[in-house]
Amino acid sequence: MMLLSRLILFAVLGDVYGGWYNSTFVAIGDHPYVVAVEDDVKNVICTGTILSDRSVLITGNCAKRIMRNHFEVSIRAGSSYTGKEGTEHHVHNRIVTYREDNFRHNIVVLCTDPIMNLDGKTRKAIPMVTNDKNFCGCRAKVIGWRRGTIGSSAKLASVNVKIINEKRCKGNFPHFVNSEEICVKNLKEGEPLEESYDGAPLVAEGKLFGIVNQHSSFGDENIDSYYRIAHFSDWISQALEECHGSGPYYSSKIEDFPYVVAIQDRDDSVLCTGTILSVQSILVTGYCAHLIIRKRYHVKIRAGSTYTGNGGSKHTTDRILTYKKEGYDHNIGIVCLNRQLDLDGITRRSISLINQNERVLSGYNATVVGWGDSDYGFPNRIRAFDVKILPQQFCKTSYVDFTDSQEICAQNLDENGQAACEGDNGAPVVAADGRLYGIINHYSRICSGVYPDIVYNVAYFSNWIRSTLDSCDVPCRQSVSSRNSKLEQFCFEP
Ligand SMILES: *[C@@H]1O[C@H](CO)[C@@H](O)[C@H](O)[C@H]1NC(C)=O
Ligand SMILES: *[C@@H]1O[C@H](CO)[C@@H](O)[C@H](O)[C@H]1NC(C)=O
């Protein structure tokens, strides 16, 4: 009875004060390598560590939550608080995981964009320990985000710990893996770490020794186990290269690909890529449609320009038509434009689709075109790269969420090959005869030609696309779904 009421009290206070461990608030200047991973309403999801100006280390569990949030998260660097100050960086589909296909028990490198300005004061990379065979027995700190009251921002806080002999953990934790985990003792009486500490760096002697994993909680004798950086350091170094990697693609001009349009945010950054279907309709992915709906009034569609920052014509939309399926994972959308496109045939024209159920075979050549992220940040000029259609099996083995019937698999096979990246979502994959094979799906994840890209197969959707196009003609309020059961429409308020 006594015990029960104490537990309830703890639970209530825990919500209000956010945590029980004995932590001390600190400033970002004391630990400038710590960043916050925040969801789309700026609540902290977990903690990350800066490894270089364009890469952050997190746990696999955190990566899983990022994917569950459809990558709509940002990395906040250079702030002592979550939700405010510092700079925000996207991650989108640039994620490099240790052990593919398993996001449960591993570590992950995120490639950030734009790159972080490592001023050494509020943003700094931390060196990793590469060999810790003889545990140091040294004092260390764990630095992460301590939540305040619900809705308020979390503050950076540190906990004093000591790195101790693994034998102590082995005794306490039956699942302790000697090589992959490091044993830590909490120096003050404390309680389990909050979930927002997932990924928090364990730092001693100015170096990264470990990161907190989701299961961390100081158990008996205040002992806990974290991921051990020395075990992963070689892999991490390679993963960093992915964020810095290079590969061939060609800068191009709109006249070569007049059917492609950039879907842009208020600041001209490219949210995703679209393809012209008719004078007033643009083909996009369901993910892109969702982004437009969320950002609505800020979004513009730029057609007829090689560049993202100027030229061409700008259009807005008040209506999105989507292919109805659960979630946003496996569908496409049509954006109806408020003002018609001037299809001059030179800088703007519509594309022809391949036919329903036409087979796009392994070995076929295609070109991907868009304004997506490249090795040098977002290009302001359109770029293209060639791909080969691969056997379905290649994507099936690389991606658990590949949908055989609706998607095809494509890859640039050049050495240091290019791949679709952030901003290329929806980018057209065009056959040598100029017809549309498909559009790049969101879940390519890794912006490197090492892995294939997943492409929505237009042959699966082309009847739906053709029959839905005309719906852009009728006023938005009018119901269209009775004519087409797979159609869902979204009208913006005037
Ligand atoms: C936290 O640390 C302070 C200062 O060392 C100490 O006085 C206090 O008892 C500790 N609180 C808990 C819950 O261990
Ligand atoms: C694809 O392109 C390569 C190189 O240009 C060519 O040799 C090959 O025949 C093409 N494949 C098809 C199916 O057209």
TrEMBL record:
Superkingdom in the source lineage: Eukaryota
Name of the protein in question: Uncharacterized protein
Organism encoding this protein: Eretmocerus hayati
